[in-house]
Amino acid sequence: MKLNILCIGDIVGRPGKRVLADNLPAIVKEREIDCVIANAENAAGGSGLTRQIYEKLLKYGVHIITLGDHTYKKKDIISVLESNNNITRPANFSAYASGKDFGLYKTSKGPVIAVVPLIGRIFMKPADSPYDCIDKILPKLESQADIVIVEIHAEATSEKVSMGYYLDGRVSCVFGTHTHIATADEKILPKGTGYITDIGMTGAHHSILGRKIECVLKNFKTRMPCPFEIATEDPRINGVIITIDSSTKKAEKISRFEFKDNKSDSISYDSDDGKPDYQADFE
Predict the structure, then answer these.
(1) Least packed by Cβ within 10 Å: which of 56, 125, 137, 211?
(2) How far apart are CA 98 and CA 89, in angstroms?
(3) Are strands 103-106 and 112-119 parallel, antiparallel or unpaired?
(4) CA pair distance 138, 112, nearest whole angstrom
């Protein structure tokens, strides 16, 4: 059985949410998508995720939500992480950290998909070994999932590529997030695992990683504190579509995906919580 899985790159602020709300259902129908996975750690004003936004993303058509280094920026997401199987934080966080090591979704065709996010350690805050972590998790998933996908949320491209080869033939796909810039190295690795270093960003692309250009430039030039407001121009969805054979568990095709919202070059609307859409510090 062939399954088409859409993995969506880091959702940044309201523009990222809006472009999904307006277009994801049509994309799923047109591309015959069986499962939608989205990184949402920047969905709440550019940093973190709230319960309200979590529920909205599910309504828009996302099936599994992943998080990264901004997992706990919003306190009310902790109870969501502890009580739901469709949202997951990096598995190699501390064993005492709230949340589950993987997310699960049963497709309408029957096969169950598991997503395991891992976080890198180069230029990132301390975390447990992602290699030891995934080695412990994969045996547990043999009885729970038909297809396993791994997200590597990391800064260094070398760390992402290394994880791809480490898991080649052991999982169906390894995709990278965190840098917000889509890479052009999508491929099927020798043992059948789909791979790409970074799937990009869902949000305003006339920006610096989703933030207003002038704000980021001012900070870089002066080193003075400056609120990094969320940009609104040129909203797009970045991601990849992977076709996986559920019987062999191998990826048969992986393609970069980009959708530009031609209905509007700029998105502006009320916030989810009545607060300005910006993050105070650039991390």
Answers:
(1) 125
(2) 8
(3) antiparallel
(4) 14
For residue 126, CA distances in Å to 46, 93, 130, 140, 158 come to 22, 9, 11, 25, 18
Amino acid sitting at position 232:
T
Q: What is the token pair recorded at 199? A: 């799937």
How do residues 133-180 score in pLDDT, each as one tens digit? 999 999 999 999 999 999 999 999 999 999 999 999 999 999 999 999
pLDDT classification of 61: cutoffs 50, 70, 90:
very high
Catalytic: which of 70, 153, 178, 180? 70
What is the CA 7 to chain-centroid distance, rounded? 7
**pTM of model > 0.85:** yes
* Radius of gyration from C-alpha coordinates of the chain: 18
Compute the distance between CA of residue 181 and CA of residue 151 in angstroms, rounded to an integer: 15
Q: What is the C-alpha separation between 43 and 46, in angstroms, rounded?
A: 6
Which residues touch 281 (CB under 8 Å, ≥6 apart)?
Answer: 225, 228
Domains and CATH numbers, the chain: 2-263 (3.60.21.10)
